[in-house]
Amino acid sequence: MVTELTPAERDQALAQLTGWAWLPDHKAIEKSFRFKDFSQAFGFMSRVALAAESQDHHPDWSNVYSKVTIRLSTHECGGLSHRDVRLAHTIDTIAP
What structural domains does the chain harbor? Predict the structure, then answer.
């Protein structure tokens, strides 16, 4: 069973992530990425999709031309979990 991070665990995890913001109303973290054009943004999304699938954890996201916004939370526990933090780290390694 996946459990929600405690506030202390969440704060510690966020301190190790760059650019991810805590959204208390959604119990989620979010980050936006900008690219040169739609093609680069879509390529990034494709790489993230493959990584998310391999981790069996999928983001909520949106794409408008060259901007991709990703929100992570775990529906199973109703908040932020270690799965979100792991995927956020992976996403950051994929981003240019």
Answer: 7-94 (3.30.1360.20)
User: Which residues make Cβ contacts (< 8 Å) with residue 64, sequence separation at least 6?
Assistant: none
pTM, to two decimals? 0.94
Phi, psi of 91 (to 5 degrees): -60, -45
Does residue 1 register a pLDDT over 90? no
Average pLDDT, the chain: 97
Q: Is 17 within 8 Å of 90 (Cβ atoms)? A: no
Looking at this protein, which amino acid is placed at residue 89? H
Q: What residues are labeled active site?
A: 53, 57-58, 75-76, 84
